[in-house]
Amino acid sequence: MKKGSTSIAVTNGKKRSLKKAILSNWQLYVMLLIPIVLTIIYKYIPMYGIQIAFRDYKASRGMLGSEWVGFKWFERFFSSPNCIRMIRNTVLLSLYSLLWSFPIPIILALLINQLRFKRFKRVVQTVLYAPHFISIMVVCGMIRIFLSPSGGLINLIAGTNIDFLSEASAFRTIYIASGIWQDAGWGIIVYMATLSNIDTTHYEAAKIDGASMFQRIRFIDIPELIPTVVLMLIMSAGNLMNVGFEKVWLLQTDLNKATSDVIAVYVYQQGIEQAKYSYSTAVGLFNTVVNIILLIVVNKLASKISEDVSFV
Questions:
Q1: pLDDT tens digits, 106-143
Q2: CA-to-CA distance for 171 and 101, rounded, in angstroms?
């Protein structure tokens, strides 16, 4: 009885302290309600519409009035002649983007962190950030100008007149290279914030012990970055199948479709242009499910690797 009374008293004490903490910081909890409500409205409530993927949706009949067809649209997608090509292009484009784009911000952050002139450091960071604020429409326009077969900068330098955007084999390189140029600088912000929290006495002690710049990076900077790198890798893997629709759509031509035909563009074409709402929803749902599976797998692998990796 005494133990039960003690546990009840402890529970009541915790409840009172929690209530007191909430009341003393009620303004913060009210502010927290705003993103929670927005997330529920724009992220969770629309999930009700997922059932369109399993119905023969007709706008005149409404969602519940449309006929239930089960996995008909999924079967149609998997049996379509371009299914394998679209999945392969989406996976390869995302995988190559992750493989080449992910390490660049880390390398840039490590190099910029070694700069000791603060003014020059800020100038370098600003120059690298700037491309991120250019719209995709403008970026694609610049790409078309630079790669133009008549007067394009790349052709002038190479002394050729090749229409690179008509070459299916060049599309992935163009997409990935332009993505690195535009987003690498913006990606260093998180890593720079992590590096800025390192105690400068560690660097001073390393210099006294005769450590070179590369040794300081290896034994001080990289271990501090590992948790952040793992977190960013997990977040990137969660969007592995979400290839940037706008850039692909703006750079796609009939001649490069062999490598540029991805799921995001196909969903747009089927759902918006041809009004096949159920079919496009089914394809989009398949894409989302694959993303969730990849996110879970990469999360498990990254957690395991982060525990085992040692830089000693």
A1: 999 999 988 888 888 889 988 999 999 999 999 999 99
A2: 16
Fold of 78-308: MetI-like fold (1.10.3720)
Which residue, among 184, 179, 173, has the nearest Cα to 147 in the 3D structure? 173
Please calculate the CA angle 187-192-198 and round it to the nearest 5 degrees.
155
Tokens of 194: 């992590």
Q: Could you tell me the residue ranges of all domains in the chain?
A: 2-68, 78-308
| Residue 93: strand, helix, or coil | helix
Tens digits of residue pLDDT in 118-127:
888 889 988 9
Strands 55-58 and 62-68: antiparallel
Residue type, 289: V
Q: Work out the average pLDDT over 198-221.
A: 86
Cα separation, 147 vs 177, whole angstroms: 13
CA distance 116 to 260: 43
Which pTM value belongs to this model?
0.80
Tokens of 9: 């008293």
Task: For the chain, give the percent of residues with pLDDT over 70.
Answer: 93
Give the whole-angstrom CA distance, residue 56 versus residue 276.
Answer: 9
Closest of 274, 308, 268 to residue 287, by C-alpha = 268
